[in-house]
Amino acid sequence: MFASLLRSPTLIADNSHRRNISRSSGWRRRVQIQAVISSGDNKSITTSPLDNKLETNGSVPRGGSKDSQVIKVKAVVTIRKKMKSNMVEDNLEYLINGVGHGIQINLISQHIDPATSCGKSVQSNVRGWLPKPSKIPYIVEYSADFTVPTDFGRPAAILITNLHAKEFHLLQIILHGFIDGPIFFPANTWIHSRNDNPLSRIIFNNQAYLPSQTPPGIKDLRREDLLSIRGGGTPQESERKSHDRIYDYATYNDLGNPDKDEKLARPLLGDHDRPYPRRCRTGRPPTRSDPMCESRIEKPHPIYVPRDETFEEIKQDTFSAGRLKALFHNLIPSLAATLSKSDIPFKCFSEIDKLYIDGVTLKDEEQRGIVENLLVGKVMKQVLSAGQRLLKYEIPAVIKGDKFSWLRDNEFARQALAGVNPVNIELLKEFPIYSKLDPAVYGPPESAITKELLEQELGGMSFEKAMEEKRLFIIDYHDMLLPFIKKMNSLHGRKAYASRTILFNTKTGVLRPIAIELSLPQMPSSPRNKRVYTQGHDGTTHWIWKLAKAHVCSNDAGIHQLVNHWLRTHACMEPYIIATHRQLSSMHPIYKLLHPHMRYTLEINALARQNLINGGGIIEASFSPGKYAMELSSAAYKNLWRFDMESLPADLIRRGMAVEDPSMPCGVKLVIDDYPYAADGLLIWSAIKEWVESYVQHFYSESDSIVTDVELQGWWSEIKFKGHYDKRNEPWWPKLDTKEDLSSILTTMIWVASGQHAAINFGQYPFGGYVPNRPTLMRKLMPQESDSDYEKFIQNPQLFFLSSLPTQLQATKVMAVQDTLSTHSPDEEYLGQVNHMHNHWINDHEILKLFSKFSDRLEEIEEIINARNKDTSLKSRTGAGVPPYELLLPLSGPGVTGRGIPNSISI
Ligand SMILES: [Fe+2]
């Protein structure tokens, strides 16, 4: 019904199926709607009926009565300034355009106009762009005065048409003058120019409504807005334009670039063989070489994401997006130019130390100009000197207090509980250990780790007792990696194993690794494809043990990045976000709940597809799996990922790291109490759960209200059947029939976007910034006596160790990426916080009180975690040189802080 109002007057005449707005001229005669630039007061004024004179500056409300009283209403329109715009030029442009047009605003009532069977409407043009001064420097406010009849009812939506040539960023509109106080229309959205899209934008007020509760006057608008977001009327295959706000799905068929080089061809991810979550559709044409492959768009041109998903320009100079782009466009090429001719291994540990003391000297003169504009944070310090530029790295937290901690076994084990990848350790539940891989391909399934061998490392405890007391744990990468090892090791400079590590929780409460099994695929030339290593006490075995641990760490770094970080947080969130926009109206309470947790994720994922995970990108160049990296990620999605196990308690129980215990706050008891990620994570999890349950209870009081919510059911259905299409037939998808079902699903999603991502993401530089602690790849196999260079290892084991690690260029590249990915931007929004510009996100005092309770609980959790970090009985987070576990502290300042839980995955 509102289709006519969504089109600007000059462009709808030829659209016969939509009502021509010019017909409204009849009702323009009755009430004056005056829109002027004004700084008048906000008082509610009742005036006498207006005369019947036709006003050129506005229209009348439909349904307005000739004899009705009117009220004066002021609309305050808040717009965010562009950081890099030319204000003089823009103001001139606005003025020129504004003389006749400006912006057009329609207020839509929640009540139906009987004459038209749609919401009552008043319309006006705001002319000119002379801003009112604002207290906040980066915003400008405009105001427009309306006069509406008293029987108009409460405005529930605004249609806004931008008649200027340029888009603008609308933060909010506030209507003053109604008797029950101001009415807020939160927007935070880009309003496209009519030149780009003739449809008006629909902005709803901040009242949350389930679909069945939608006021009659805006029912049609609710539907029309969703249709527009789904791309209604736009061919699915058409290429998206930057001003579009269309959310749709596509497979990962854009990682390769076969048109550029056949070596850069990569298989499609998102089919039966290589399942994967869906990403946001861009509609780019296929490549010439492969019709199934989407053509690439390379830096500096951006990949399409819906307009409101792009990073804000505000504070661009220190903004994470700007830094990320600078990293890809300037720093990495500059590092490569500086080091490529001498891409050699580190020869001694002091060369690594020099990165923090002296820095890397970037000598490439051509790079100087752009590098001087490089946006760096606290960690990568740059110092200008004549003709040269220094890139200095900050000392990573893992070696800040104790330079040699990484060498210790207990530190290796501590990082499995409190490091950047604390989600792969499992209780050893069964013994012997068997592979689930096909024995016909991969050989006998039994592990080479024996009970006798383990018993030698248990300090006198029997193996049975250690199992009974749940003291044995495993980090098992065997089945995930072995199918890829042959291919990985065929790549230049890559030598990896599939590892298993057994850890023992001693009676003193200290976890330590006691055995490492390194496996290669079975080949006739190497029948002993599985070797088991234990801690050595002589010079040779000591260094062998160090090398075995380094191989485990490089397995861990790859699985962390490709599975736990990229797949399980970034990639799996993307379909939830697309479905939320497509299926839930912005007035839906669940949309409002999820909105802060979707910020910037599509944009950061698009940047990653362009620069990080693409064929020939930084991940391939820096991590062991090389060009097979994303295939490995797909295999993990195929074999391991399940939505119901992404809940923290369920994941801990699956891994045997917790047992069900109804007496505990989250219903689980940890097997290792001193497990910082899990202990702090359960606090955050339970706070989110309590907030979500109270929120859901508030909006879904009726027993059948979940199953009758058509938008909600469409949302969940689309997540399963479109967003995670390749997993659509899995039996483990939770049902969505009850409030409990909904709360559980939402708690999992919010946890993944906030706490889980923070725990997995922001420790990347603090732990990975020291290459020996966490090499992203290994370049040599373990030394064996039969090898020709075994003698070199015996003569100089340190050099052998260092030459097994990433080269200087590989290491410095990864350090630069990890630094940027570990950085909080200055405009980060943390869990429990609301941006001050979004204070009016919902018109519901009860919900605001519940949110305040959630924020208070997070403050308490901050104190609890701080106290834990001072408890000397917790050896995983205290002790000489041991960094505290802060990754799940809710708040942080900007930069690389190793703490802070942003609401969403934004880096
Ligand atoms: Fe991330």
Q: Can you describe this structure in just a few lines?
A:
This protein has 907 residues and is of the alpha+beta class.
Question: How does this structure look, described?
Answer:
Its cofactor is Fe cation. With 907 residues, the protein is of the alpha+beta class. It has a domain of 223 residues: Sandwich (Lipoxygenase-1), CATH 2.60.60.20. The chain is built from 26 helices and 21 strands. The strands form six sheets. Strands 1, 2, 5, 7 and 8 form a five-stranded antiparallel beta sheet that branches. A five-stranded antiparallel beta sheet has the order 15-16-17-18-19. A hairpin with a 6-residue loop joins strand 7 and strand 8. The protein is globular and about 95 Å long. The N terminus is likely disordered. Fe (ii) ion binds next to helix 13 and helix 21.
Itemize the secondary structure elements and their pairings:
Blueprint: H1 3-6, E1 46-47, E2 70-80, H2 87-98, E3 103-113, E4 118-126, E5 139-149, E6 155-162, E7 168-176, E8 183-191, E9 201-204, H3 219-229, E10 249-250, E11 279-280, H4 320-339, H5 349-357, E12 360-362, H6 365-372, E13 381-385, E14 388-392, H7 397-400, H8 409-418, E15 425-427, H9 439-442, H10 451-455, H11 463-468, E16 472-476, H12 478-489, E17 498-505, E18 511-519, E19 530-533, H13 539-583, H14 589-594, H15 601-611, H16 618-622, H17 629-639, H18 648-654, E20 658-660, E21 668-670, H19 676-699, H20 710-723, H21 739-761, H22 764-768, H23 790-795, H24 797-804, H25 808-821, H26 845-868
Antiparallel strand pairs: 1-2, 2-5, 2-7, 3-4, 3-6, 6-9, 7-8, 10-11, 12-14, 13-14, 15-16, 16-17, 17-18, 18-19, 20-21
Helix pairs in contact: 4-25, 13-17, 13-20, 13-21, 13-24, 19-21, 19-26
The chain binds fe (ii) ion.
Fe (ii) ion is lined by residues 565, 570, 757, 761, 821, 905, 907.
